[in-house]
Amino acid sequence: MQIDYSISIDLTSTCEATGLETTELIEIVSHGIIEPEGSCPEEWVFDIDMLATAKRAIRLQRDLHLDWAAVGLAIDLIQERDKLADENAILRAQLQRLMQE
Q1: Could you tell me which residues come within 8 angstroms of residue 35 by beta carbon, excluding any fewer than 6 positions away?
Q2: Which of 20, 46, 62, 83 is a good FRET partner for 28, with 20 to 30 A between their CA atoms?
Q3: pLDDT value of position 66
Q4: 44, 37 in Cβ contact below 8 A?
Q5: Torsional class of 25: left (φ above 0), alpha (ψ -120 to 50), beta (otherwise)
Q6: In the beta sheet, which residues pair with residue 37?
Q7: Backbone torsion region of residue 100, taken as left when φ is above 0, otherwise alpha when ψ lies between -120 and 50, otherwise beta
Q8: Residue 36 · residue 45 · CB < 8 Å
Q9: CA-to-CA distance for 69 and 25, rounded, in angstroms?
């Protein structure tokens, strides 16, 4: 038996968890910054990673006064940087093991 550790929450709970207004969350979704499951806001379901991304997006928009297209680009670049950092850590560990042999 496989346990599913993912948590999904609806629009209202997501707004409460992130401190975002419904209109702000809809704006973030409309720009493709996060992509919930469901065909309309009443059916949307968000996962935990989307909460963090939504919070980050609204912070970028508010603090840096970016338009939503720029926020989307910044989020993509941040996620790519994080992915590369993770891959780099894995490669460093592999190299370290090879050097010890």
Answers
A1: 29, 50
A2: 83
A3: 94
A4: yes
A5: alpha
A6: 45
A7: alpha
A8: yes
A9: 15
Residues in the chain, pLDDT under 50:
none
- Residue 48: its pLDDT value, please? 87
Phi, psi of 2, rounded to the nearest 5 degrees: -105, 135
pTM over the 0.90 mark: no
Q: In the prediction, which pLDDT does 6 show?
A: 67
Beta bridge mates, 10: 45
Task: List C-alpha distances in Å: 17 to 11, 29, 49, 82, 86.
Answer: 10, 16, 12, 23, 27
Q: Where are the alpha helices (DSSP H) in 1-101?
A: 11-18, 22-30, 48-64, 68-100
